[in-house]
Amino acid sequence: MTDFRSGFIAIIGRPNVGKSTLVNALLGQKIAAVSPKPQTTRKRQLGILTTDHAQLVFVDTPGMHNPRHKLGEFLNQEAQESLEGVDVILWLVDSSVPPAEDDKQIASLLGRTPRRTPLVLAANKIDLISAEALTPRLEAYQTSLKKEAHVISISATENRNLDQLQELLISLSPIRPPEYDEEQVTDSYERDIAADLIREACLHRLREEVPHGVGVRIDEFAERENGMLYIAATVFVERESQKGIVIGEGGKMLKQIGSSARKEIEEMGGRPVFLELRVKVLKDWRNDENALRRLGYKITNKKKRKPSR
Ligand SMILES: Nc1nc2c(ncn2[C@@H]2O[C@H](COP(=O)(O)OP(=O)(O)OP(=O)(O)O)[C@@H](O)[C@H]2O)c(=O)[nH]1
Ligand SMILES: [Mg+2]
User: Fold this and answer.
1) What is the per-residue pLDDT across 193-208, written as a single tens digit (0 to 9) for each?
2) pTM of the entire structure?
3) By the 8 A CB rule, do 165 and 173 touch?
4) Best of 24, 31, 34, 41 to mutate for ligand 1, by most ligand atoms within 8 A of CB?
């Protein structure tokens, strides 16, 4: 029998590069919300992949960026803390665009992580770039990094090179028994994923600034005797004007959001769902620490640590 390998893999990258899409693709099922808008992921979430000879525990993180409000600070904190104590760091970049300022900052942060932690630079979205343009693009990302990295190009949506990536990550993981049961795919509760899927539906349907000001709270989550899951949730927005947009004419928008979220939640849980949504204004909540806490985003105001080297 070969030795069993098991590793924690932090997936780091700026918003919208495809981190959550990659975790869903590697797991072969949807556990994380995904959308074309940046800052979709707001909390760290584990995606657990178990094969007969290895277990990879992916730590999906919020995209790192220059924050403009307190929620943004929380997102960066979540991402940065996920680097601690992992076995491998996977820096995911969008190969269809040159390195942005946020990428350079991430590269410099990664340059300060412990030398013993292997680093993988994965260039995603190669379906959007020609083979000739890819090589110099990879070099541009690589030179911004002051550390050696294993480089691999992938497409999370087209399933390209994902097996190779998986094997690489397994080979970099230590020999160790699995941490989680093989049936477990995530550490998030179904109700928290449901909240994220409702927010994802908002991100897909709403335009411009409105979706980023959306927060979701699950008020009731109960299984009824007939096997149906009953969920009541509140969609919080920052301003009165946004409330009208989310509800839409004659309640049309909220109905669409509810219906697409319900389908996703049903698919995840494999049982029928009754979803009831209401909309409330929580003024400027993204900048209000108390409101953030109530919605489950806690800023710890940790003191800055010195770089370890
Ligand atoms: N063309 C293409 N699009 C991709 C690929 N991977 C992800 N996407 C798209 O990129 C967008 C962002 O994907 P997410 O998985 O939400 O990105 P993320 O890095 O988790 O974003 P945050 O949670 O905001 O940090 C979605 O519209 C995905 O469908 C890829 O390989 N090719
Ligand atoms: Mg994400």
Assistant:
1) 999 999 999 999 988 7
2) 0.90
3) no
4) 34
